[in-house]
Design goal:
Structural class: alpha/beta
Largest sheet: 6 strands, parallel
Mean pLDDT: 90
Helix content: 25-40%
Number of helices: 9
Radius of gyration: 21 Å
Distance between the termini: 19 Å
Strand content: 15-25%
Strand order of the largest sheet: 2-1-3-4-5-11
Oligomer: single chain
Length: 329
């Protein structure tokens, strides 16, 4: 989430981090292989169905499950830690063959994963974080690639704008958002490799009002800033507003890029109020968890993009005025 939950600009609910190592690169004690397709039941505990991001994630998960002829059980955590723990454990008690969970509180996953291990039920995490538990796999957006795409686009557009300065701003999410942090880390490295200087880098804590102030102060300090990358769209749009309030253009004057492809950002791009954003694919993430579930249930070796941390990455997409219509509505 995307920030993730950064995607939703929810501060303080992202993961503290992943365990540095795994018990195994295979699903431990998965259900017996060779089961008839209709005999497999997937339980999905979702962060909160009131949010569009998780509605799309649920849809992608459910459709992938149904395409396999499997059964699907949904539990809505409703952004509540107790509901997450009790509801996910209830799915395990109902005899699901695999548990997919997008956790509201990753640090509270311990008893859920422990119970799943006891029952030999694989656990696949979808976004947010694993809380350092021995889950079987976690699916997250390819945040680092998104940061690189943002930097490459910014370099291209700064040149198109005819700007001579090489000064840019990087606005990060809250420090606890370890996955989202990869966005700015990759952006910073890529933009520096292209000869640019990050003159201001501060955390906006995923809050629009904080990002607005950061950008306002950055412009006061360095009026010749030519680009800004924000870790999520609420902060990206807020930075664009600060740019406009300073009498500058957030597209042709200062290249402004967000992350998530939230509706407000998509609208802003269409109206010329934001240069670009990076789109996550929650439906694709959901479908990917089901593919991992299939590997686990059949007792096969899970395939990872980062085997050490048991991470699987979902592709992200640069959204500009040229393709924004595909993301509208």
């Amino acid at each position: 989430m995307r920030t993730t939950v950064s995607t939703l600009a929810l501060a303080g609910v992202l993961a503290l981090g992943l365990s540095a190592c795994s018990d195994s690169t295979t699903a431990e004690g998965g259900k017996p292989s060779g089961k008839a397709s209709g005999d497999v039941t997937v339980g999905f505990s979702v962060y909160d169905m009131q949010y569009e991001f998780f509605q799309k994630m649920e849809k992608g998960t459910r459709e992938a499950v149904e395409a396999k002829g499997w059964k699907f059980k949904l539990h809505d955590e409703k952004s509540d830690e107790n509901e997450m723990v009790t509801g996910a454990q209830a799915l395990l008690d109902q005899g699901v063959d695999v548990l997919i969970i997008s956790p509201f509180k990753p640090d509270a996953l311990g008893p859920i994963v422990a119970k799943a291990k006891q029952k030999k039920i694989p656990v696949i995490i979808d976004d947010i974080g694993g809380g350092g538990t021995p889950y079987d796999a976690i699916v997250i957006s390819d945040n680092a690639d998104g940061g690189k795409q943002a930097a490459d686009y910014m370099v291209q557009q700064v040149a198109a704008n005819g700007a001579k300065s090489k000064k840019v701003v990087s606005i990060t999410c809250e420090p606890s958002a370890v996955y989202a942090a990869r966005r700015n880390q990759a952006f910073d490295q890529q933009i520096k490799d292209k000869g640019f200087q990050v003159v201001t880098e501060l955390s906006g804590n995923s809050k629009a009002e904080e990002a607005y102030k950061i950008m306002k102060d950055a412009l006061a300090k360095d009026p010749d800033v030519v680009g800004v990358f924000a870790c999520n769209d609420p902060m990206g749009v807020a930075a664009a507003n600060a740019i406009k309030d300073a009498g500058k253009d957030p597209v042709k004057g200062i290249v402004t890029v967000g992350f998530n492809a939230d509706p407000e950002a998509v609208t802003a791009i269409g109206k010329g109020g934001l240069s670009a954003t990076i789109a996550q694919d929650p439906a694709g993430m959901g479908a990917k968890t089901v593919e991992l579930a299939a590997q686990a249930v059949n007792g096969g070796k899970l395939t990872y993009d980062d085997e050490t941390n048991r991470e699987v990455f979902q592709k992200v997409t640069l959204v500009t005025k040229d393709n924004v219509a595909q993301f509208a509505g």
